[in-house]
Amino acid sequence: MCNDELSPSIFFPEIEGNLTKVVWAHAVNSKALLDSALKNETVMMLEADVVLGKLKTSQKDEEIPIMAHPPATESDLSLKDFLLEVNGTKKGAKLDFKSLDAFNASMAILKDTHNVTKQPVFLNADILPGPTEEANATKPVDSTNFLSMAKAFPRFTLSLGWTTKYTNSSLSYTAEHVQQMITAVEEVEQPITYAVRAGLAANDIATMKSLMEKSAKLKNATLTIWSSEGDAVNATQLSTLIKDVGVEKVYLDLPADLLKELRLSGASSLSFASSMALGSFLVSYLFSSMARRG
Fold first, then answer.
1. SS3 at position 52
2. Got the DSSP string for 91-140?
């Protein structure tokens, strides 16, 4: 089963169990960004995207797992090299798989890492359709196959979300979305963090609390609240949601300006620390946000 020392609350003792204090770097999809993130002492978790594509430095035409966000299909950083660089550092990693094919092609690499890693690793995928107004919305990664394959990594945390298209600030997650997720994860034994979009989650606090209540039997269920630049988010309601769920159960993967609007006495140092960290990644973050979970 999952080792407790790989939990961020244990691995980062300085946060004193307050997960909202975990600082993220976004779209670490190149050698330059990875090197910068590893040197930044404020950053704790490195979020990066995994697709099948071509390594720029390779003379071969074969597709391998690389670090890139669609529609990009080339990178100077492979998943294997990313994990080799991160392993043994004081950083954790969140790997966002954009397709089941990318996850399947990464299995051997992940198994090697799983056996030796000494830091938190999250395996992320949007496995269910979520709030959207578009009939041709992005298709989720197949939940049954992803969760079945992910069983091979009991020491890793599963980060599971819904596909979203945030064009209407009145949209929210529904009881049906919650029940579909609970049904999908009922046999999961790894720790789970639910990746929810801030604006959508803040619009229905009761539904988000229901998600956590129905997850009481799961191992260490948490929320990861994320947002793209430009999303309309009710910061007051989001603050209430975080306080109601508890800072020991909520990660905040948010833009610096939104962090500053939150009223969290238990995370008073978060905005300043995150602003410092995110400043180094602002260009890449803005670029990735335009395409991120579109």
1. strand
2. -EEEEEE-SHHHHHHHHHHHHHHHHH--S-EEEEEEEEE-S-S-TTPPPP
Give how far the C-alpha of residue 223 lies from the chain's centroid of Cα atoms, to the nearest Å. Answer: 10
Q: Report the C-alpha dihedral over residues 227, 161, 138, 278, rounded to 10 degrees.
A: 30
Q: How far apart are CA 1 and CA 192, in angstroms?
A: 13
* Beta-carbon count within 10 A of 263 CB: 13
CA distances 177 to 117, 128, 207, 226, Å, are 33, 8, 9, 17
Write down how long the chain is. 294
pLDDT tens digits along 97-153: 999 999 999 999 999 999 899 999 999 999 999 987 665 668 999 999 999 999 999
Residue identified by tokens 């399947």 is 104
Give, in degrees to the nearest 5, the angle at Cα 8 between 19 and 231. 45
At 77, list the tokens. Answer: 């950083």
| pTM as predicted | 0.88
Cα–Cα distance for residue pair 144/129, rounded to 1 Å = 14
CB 22 within 8 A of CB 12: yes
Nearest to 86 by CA among 127, 131, 135, 120: 120
Tokens coding 97: 């798989």
Residue 74, token pair as written in the block:
């080339």
Element of type H or E holding 223: strand 222-226
CB-CB contact of 154 with 185 (8 Å): no
Report pLDDT digits (tens) over 3-47. Answer: 577 899 999 999 999 999 999 999 999 999 999 999 999 999 999
Give me the half-sphere count of Cα atoms (radius 13 Å) on the Cβ side of residue 45: 28
Distance CA 237, CA 217 (A): 27
